Amino acid sequence: MAQVILVDLVLAGDNAIVIGLFAATVPAAMRQSVILIGIAFAAVTRIAFALVTAQLLLVPGLLLIGGLLLSWVCWHLWRNLSNRQALPDPPREFAIKLDIDEPSHHPDYHRGSVDVTR
Q1: H helices present in 2-118, as ranges
Q2: Is residue 85 a contact partner of residue 39, using CB atoms and an 8 Å limit?
Q3: Cα–Cα distance between 77 and 79 in angstroms, integer?
Q4: Which residues make Cβ contacts (< 8 Å) with residue 5, sequence separation at least 6?
Q5: Is the distance from CB of 71 to CB of 26 less than 8 angstroms?
Q6: 96 alpha-carbon distance from chain centroid
Q7: φ/ψ (deg, to 5) at 6
Q8: How many whole angstroms separate alpha carbon 77 and alpha carbon 66?
Q9: Annotated domain spans of the chain
Q10: Cβ atoms within 10 Å of 4's Cβ, excluding its own
Q11: What does DSSP assign to residue 56?
């Protein structure tokens, strides 16, 4: 259960970003209530999913089945990657030449007069 809660806390930052993005789209008068409702909904769903996950971890053999399924998926991915042939190089007319001015190569860079934040 402690592992589930720890993972839950680490991933909680995603909720803050989504709630903030959504709150930015509503009028300022509603923003505070939208943030509070979003936080409450996120907390309730996280607690519910943590409880369900903790109960599923108590099912005998479920971790073994999950591990076997993950091994099967990895084996298929490895087999597909090892059988894939290298792709040929694209024709020369599809090549794109990038001319990037590296700030450290600019003559004024070391004197502090080049704006590298563009």
Answers
A1: 2-10, 12-23, 28-57, 62-83
A2: no
A3: 5
A4: 50
A5: no
A6: 30
A7: -65, -45
A8: 17
A9: 2-85
A10: 16
A11: H
Taking 3-state DSSP, the helix, strand and coil percentages for the chain, each rounded to the nearest 5, stand at 70, 0, 30
pTM of the model: 0.48
Per-residue pLDDT, 74? 94
Mean pLDDT by 10 residues, the chain (118 residues): 68 79 90 90 87 90 93 92 70 62 56 53
Buried-exposed string 46-57: b where 16+ CB fall within 10 A, e elsewhere: beeeeeeeeeee
Question: For residues 69 and 62, what is the distance between their CA atoms, to the nearest angstrom?
Answer: 10
The one-letter code for the residue type at 77 is L
